[in-house]
Amino acid sequence: MQKQETRNFQSEVKQLLHLMIHSLYSNKEIFLRELISNASDAVDKLKFKTLSNPDLYENNSILKVQISINKKQRLITIKDNGIGMTRKEVIENLGTIAKSGTKDFIKSLNDSLDKKSEINSQLIGKFGVGFYSAFIVADKVSIKTRAAGVSIQEGVFWESSGEGNYHIANINKKLRGTEIILHIRPKCDEFLDTWRIKLIISKYSEHISLPIEIEMYNDKEKKYYWEQINKAQALWLKNKNDINEKEYKEFYKQLTSDNTDPITWSHNHVEGKQEYISLLYIPSNIPWDIRNRDYKNGLKLYVQRVFIMEDAEQLLPKYLRFIRGLVDSNDLPLNISREILQKNSIIHNMKITLTKKVLNMLMSLSKNVIIYNNFWKKFGLVFKEGPAEDINNKNIIIKLLRFASTYNDNSEQNVSLEEYSKRMIKGQKKIYFLTSDNYISAKSSPHLEFFYKRGIEVLLLIDHIDEWMISYITEFEGKTLQSISKQDNSLDEFIQNKDNIIKNEIKEKFQPFLKKIQDLLGKKIKKVKLTSRLINTPAIVTTDINEMSTQMAKLFAAAGQKTPEIKYNFELNPNHILIKKILTIKDEKYFSEFVKLLLEEAILAEKGTLEDPNKFINRINNFLSKI
Ligand code: ADP
Ligand code: MG
User: Fold this and answer.
1) Residue closest by Cα to atom 16 of ligand 1
2) pLDDT over 70 at 96, yes or no
3) What's the mean pLDDT when you consider all of the chain?
4) Cβ(42) to ligand 1 under 6 A?
């Protein structure tokens, strides 16, 4: 051995190994899934590289994974003839964790975990730290590897007992690829049983398109031989009718390292101008970082059965980034890169059809209310980016949106615009909505009083993104969407029936009063007027139809952007006792304080904040002191 060296693991790796060894008690068998998956990745990478450089095959072309067990010496060996690793790659891949998201995750897991609790074995594959799971069952792991295309002398030996450090050295290695030798822990005897290992492999690797062989012993002939365990056929190539549900689900799990069943899937062989196969899944499990728009799209890209890349994000729009699956194209060049993907017209067309496929899949899913609501709870927030991002499919996207509504007595978002339309009352032309910070403040908004009384449903838009999203939806099947916190002449007309009309004599009576208020408040407001929208509240503020709404201004402010100050309409309820009271006040100062207090109250109800809360409090205290 040459160039021997002992190196420390990066501190996150140490934390992770500690977790693996001390906190993972059940489901230990997943180590095999991870190591086989790595071997299969290594073979995929080799296949890809040999496209441009066939010499890398080194005349050793039957690609496979071989697993052998040595019960006496307590060893399991997993051998592949894939791409292998150079010394530098070994150090980078097996001693550090590069992804910062994964690092943070491990830190938080480590901090939050008390010694007795267990980490969830599902997380391991998801976070790209699968290799380290070898230490769940092994108290020592030795590796021999050589990268494809380098000389025999450039083999690398790596060994560690999973504590603080590892040893690395150069060795001669004749065969290209990687051999991982697990020295099985005393309490993990079960994994030294060939039949047990065989079962685990068939459980996790049925759909790996690479032959997996296990070494068996023939008692009669007293001979060892290799037995292939999996069928090694890519599932997506098979005819739909020949694949059952269980197989689709298992393939999903193997493809994504997500251990929960997907909600549904769509498998298509597309022929004609373009030829490709797509297999798209809707997961039932939310990835931890899905909210982030930088979250990588889950589709894998294959070209003529060769795996080309992970996360080919050009294949679907961002708002569908929760979709997992793969595309296998016959038309793309094999040497396609991410840069080319961006400009490629084949990809562009594929994206259009794949998007339609997903939307149609969601449309069928939406027929099952319970399942769709469950989907919406998980992915609705991401899907709401759709109306802004995908104008071409807006009509179908709008149908798929779900909202909280005054029709229900809870914050659940399960009302579609279609359902709302069916419940519209006679004479109602618009679809009404209210945006707010949260359900509680939406529900108690004074804007709703009238709608409650008249039994008109209002959609409650309570997610941050809603205000922005709804600005991209102006109508649904000919019906305008109208914010009830905005000035709305048609609403005024609509509600001016007998019991609501403000009689002319009242209007006249209030005329000088309104003028007085307008003079008093001056530029603080846009316009003061009477309203018949209110019942228990003396006054509200509204914005003009073309003006920025309060919620939108808040969004901008939260993003650190300057926004013009909102000028509100100040609308007064002539039937309210407080308004009737102010009408009779003679004292100018008292009148002015009263009006300002009402305005501040109305703004507080609308915005949830005031520019100068102290002024408001002083005013209230003054009034209280006079009681
Ligand atoms: P992931 O597979 O998600 O990248 P792992 O912890 O399972 O994370 O593996 C880390 C890295 O080590 C892999 O990305 C790969 O570069 C390298 N590696 C692991 N096993 C092999 C192997 N059998 N052959 C070649 N490279 C490997
Ligand atoms: Mg892996």
Assistant:
1) 93
2) yes
3) 89
4) yes
